[in-house]
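Let's inspect one such protein example.
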Amino acid sequence: MEEDREREKDEAVSGGSGVKKGLALAVLEVLKQESDAAHPMRQKEMQDVLRDVHRMEADRKTLRLHLRLLTEMGYPIEHTQGGWYYAHEFTQAELSLLIDSLPPGLSEQQRQQLIHKLCGLSSIWFSRDQQHREEPGSSELLLTLEVLQEAIRRGLCVSFCYGRYDIDKQLHLKTHHDGTPREYIVSPYRTVMASGHCMLLGNTRPYDGITVYRLDRIRHMKLLEQEPARPLGEVSDQLADMAAFLSQRPYMFSDDPVNVKFIIDRKYVGDVLDWFGTGVRLRQQGDGDRIEVQASVSPTAMKFWALQYGEVCELVSPKTLRAELAAITADMAARYAGPAPRQEKKSAAQDRDADAPKE
């Protein structure tokens, strides 16, 4: 019996015993493109597609023979009461997650190309369900990633310019006092997705410690062939536990974490775990609806987080950070207690200029 199966497999490749190699490949392609677990195909449907798309004819017996041989050869083809289907490597939920995780710094053309490739890993039914969102970005992001991957693999430094956005909504490169663009020389170690953005973790010459850069704000990256990267062991041991590194830096500030303690309403436990991870210590405060949280966090990140959740959160320690928050909130209270800043009235000419089409 086993010898018969092996002979049929050989004949499937060679085209003997009624098996046609071209037909077998066409059947496989039809199932890949037209079927999935939710959309199995009956043999009549496969025959129609083979005839209309591939210009091939196959009776039910021939088609059944090819389906059985493809299955025995290891292809992930399943059969149910509803028909035959190809068991794709990625589920539709997994592909949707990958598409939703694409970094926002991509250009629209690159985004659509990647979405098209990811959709190609499933059936046409998945592709039809996708809504392509248009988002702003830069065509440099993928090139930056490629250069970084090469540098990390070979242990080399990279150089680049870094920018920030201004009131004109454009990225402006950081400069020296004389106005020339500032060039950063960095030993790259990891790229990660955090806070919805693709980040570079590396060491910036001539400083110690880990610096975090957003890839969509990097321009003109170059691989420095003659500049070996500084060994990570000389810089920091923080990246050994990447999960801890990320949970200690909710906003990806690069300062060293400190032990913090704060009180927050119990209903926000989910938010605490989302931001700081499951490694935090939680303790109920008396019989009320408040909990005490202890965590190791970047002090800069904790400052902004405490301000974000200020209505329901109170920082207990460290005292220096509590004092800084007291000063910030006192200044905010004074500003909001007074009248709102006066807005300058636009002249009629300014209104016309604002409404005029841009060349």
